[in-house]
Design brief:
Blueprint: E1 4-8, H1 12-42, H2 49-53, E2 81-87, E3 89-90, E4 94-96, E5 102-103, H3 105-117, E6 120-126, H4 131-136, E7 142-145, H5 151-154, E8 157-159, E9 190-194, H6 198-206, E10 211-215
Parallel strand pairs: 2-6, 2-7, 9-10
Antiparallel strand pairs: 1-7, 1-8, 3-4, 4-5
């Protein structure tokens, strides 16, 4: 999964907002990458003497941003407010907090972006299946949620660069672990998946002989 900020594809002003948000996301990504690298460098100094004598395999720090990329700062003079739309029930990324207000990683990121560019923002929570229609009917300026990029959606909205990646995983009982997951190994096996998700589309395309069970 590669979450993006999503904006209408047919509004010139909103396209500039998408560029603004995309550039700021790149900056956030560089900060995250830098912090992760610094943390990885600091870890060896905290090892015990026993660990120092043992061979320690190097730990790769995943980096999804090009540290050499320096996007131009967009014109913010026409940007006065951003109305974000997000989902009501997808923790820990976006959900309704104990106080009834929006909460989660996506919500915090939206607020951080607005604080960085000194622009007023609102965050409205809606059911996931209503987000794109709400954006199209001008009830919001941008969606910050886990929308999969599809050819159909590209006709309706624009996407920023992804700001994090969350690869999918197969999960099984401990007594049914496979050495590797391949289509032929799952032939006739029951596989549960969220209905209408990118994962379901992936399974239907590549694991054609598995017995799929889609859940809402």
């Amino acid at each position: 999964m590669q979450p993006h900020i999503t904006v209408p594809a047919n509004e010139r002003l909103t396209r500039s907002r998408a560029m603004t948000l995309g550039c700021l996301l790149v900056a956030c990504g560089l900060l995250v990458f830098s912090a992760a690298t610094d943390s990885a460098r600091a870890q060896p100094a905290a090892t015990t003497s026993a660990t120092k004598t043992a061979a320690v395999a190097p730990q790769a720090v995943p980096g999804f941003w090009d540290p050499r990329r320096r996007p131009d700062r967009p014109d913010l003079s026409r940007l006065t407010v951003i109305r974000f739309l997000t989902e009501t029930d997808y923790p820990p990324f976006n959900f309704t907090g104990p106080d009834g207000n929006p909460a989660g990683f996506n919500v915090d990121l939206a607020r951080a972006l607005c604080e960085e560019i000194k622009v007023t923002c609102t965050i409205q929570m809606r059911r996931f299946e209503t987000l794109v229609d709400a954006l199209a009917s001008n009830r919001g300026d941008a969606i910050i949620a886990s929308l999969a990029v599809t050819p159909e959606l590209r006709k309706r909205v624009d996407f920023t660069d992804p700001y994090y990646r969350a690869p999918a995983r197969f999960v099984s009982r401990r007594d049914a672990v496979m050495s590797e997951v391949r289509p032929e190994y799952l032939e006739g096996k029951k596989v549960g998946v969220i209905a209408g998700s990118a994962h379901e589309a992936y399974l239907k395309a590549f694991f054609t002989d598995a017995e799929l069970h889609a859940y809402p």
